[in-house]
Write a structure and sequence with these properties.
Length: about 425
């Protein structure tokens, strides 16, 4: 791109930034937070800024002599405009003190430029038919949208400058989300927005049933839409369980469709109640974290706020493994992305996991029993295990026939660990706290 193609103010601001760096290398301490090389419109400016950044990061002084030498070493001296052009840069900067203001001009223009380029690219994707599948096209557009965002990691703030922000935070009531289990909610206050919550158990212990009960508990609070991805069960199977828990109609009778007129009346009334709740369910198999992110963003734009995201379960998601990457590393990328999704969408993400079958079933579970546990343990804010303790079988007279299920909170960031007991009434798919 030449000066003729570039807005004069943009080109002038770019030259002033580079000139300011030559005159006072310290301005780069601020500029590297604000500016990326791609923000510059002129190729020679991108090259100069990139080399200057590398020199500064290596604690090398930057002046006309050292910069010329480094560009010559890289074979990029002519590409950068030559010695005469760099001499001109040092002379055109009005004042070094305004370098940050020049950077704001360059960055603002860069974002506007990328948005316009994004619009052209989306139009091209939509009209040229380069994707055969609609989902591939939508994911490509999501990735393009992400490319607009700055690549920096933020600016350091002193304790003094952060004072007001901190006391505003203390004065602001946390928007915690209750799960519908009173003892659990009282202990922890509720799920935090931005949390990654792992609910793990061995098969047939009741993790899906507990998830469905949590969904209903959260959905009744008016905290936003609950988004559910069920990969093992279709929607009718989920409704069977939810309605059994809600109405008390036997889950087995619902499954076999051996229903009386009274049962049908209760189920219709139960469905009427469910229908009023902000719950959306996808029952597609082999979903990717990118697909979940794309839909979650769409739903947040539509509803304004998301109450929680549920995924049943991690082990059967579509998790691509790159060349040379282990399964555990690939799972780690997914759990890291799930945590980032929780922060971005500003809601808890509840991810169900299968416990490893290693060891004896009767052993109290710990974090090491998570499959591919390293990354899950690291990324999660809260990890809960459900398990049956063979020595704890009496749920009490009020819950005759129920199985006692132990809940072990093996990790609770900032809240500690704890244990709870539940009576699981499998015939109506309901957990009651003991």
């Amino acid at each position: 791109m030449t000066y003729k193609d570039t807005d004069f103010r943009q080109a002038n601001a770019e030259m002033s930034i580079l000139g300011a760096i030559l005159l006072d290398n310290r301005v780069l301490d601020d500029l590297t937070i604000q500016l990326e090389p791609r923000d510059f419109t002129i190729q020679s400016h991108q090259t100069l800024y990139t080399v200057m950044k590398h020199m500064h990061e290596s604690d090398r002084p930057i002046d006309l002599v050292t910069l010329t030498d480094r560009l010559n070493t890289y074979g990029k001296l002519d590409q950068s405009g030559g010695v005469a052009y760099m001499t001109e840069l040092a002379s055109v900067v009005p004042t070094v003190q305004n370098a940050r203001h020049y950077a704001e001009i360059v960055h603002r223009h860069a974002v506007q430029r990328r948005i316009m380029e994004l619009g052209d690219r989306i139009k091209s994707i939509a009209t040229e038919g380069e994707f055969s599948e609609e989902e591939d096209m939508l994911q490509a557009i999501e990735r393009l949208s992400d490319s607009i965002r700055p690549e920096g990691n933020g600016e350091l703030v002193s304790i003094t400058d952060a004072r007001q922000e901190y006391f505003d935070y203390l004065a602001r009531k946390d928007d915690l989300i209750h799960t519908g289990f009173p003892k659990f909610d009282e202990w922890m206050g509720g799920l935090g927005r931005g949390w990654l919550y792992i609910l793990a158990a061995r098969p047939s212990v009741g993790k899906t049933a507990k998830m469905l009960q949590m969904i209903q508990g959260i959905a009744t609070q008016g905290k936003g839409q609950c988004l559910v991805w069920s990969q093992e069960m279709k929607r009718p199977q989920l409704f069977n369980r939810m309605l059994s828990s809600l109405t008390g109609v036997s889950a087995n009778r619902i499954r076999l469709k051996h229903l009386s007129e009274g049962d049908m009346k209760h189920l219709r009334e139960g469905y009427d109640a469910l229908e009023m709740l902000p719950i959306s369910i996808a029952d597609a198999k082999n979903v990717t974290i990118d697909e979940i992110r794309a839909v979650a963003r769409q739903q947040k734009r539509k509803h304004g706020r998301i109450g929680a995201i549920f995924v049943d379960y991690l082990g059967i998601m579509n998790i691509p493994t790159k060349k040379g990457e282990t399964r555990a590393q690939a799972v780690g990328e997914v759990t890291k992305a799930a945590k980032h999704l929780a922060i971005e969408i500003d809601c808890p993400v509840i991810l169900l996991c299968q416990m490893s079958r290693e060891g004896k079933k009767a052993i109290k579970p710990s974090l090491e029993h998570l499959r591919e546990s390293g990354s899950i343990e690291q990324d999660a804010d809260l990890v809960e295990f459900l398990w049956e303790d063979p020595e704890d079988t009496d749920p009490g007279r009020d819950h005759m026939g129920a199985k006692v299920i132990q809940s072990v909170i093996a990790k609770g960031r900032d809240i500690g660990v704890n244990e709870f007991r539940y009576a699981f009434k499998g015939w109506i798919q309901r957990f009651d706290e003991l």
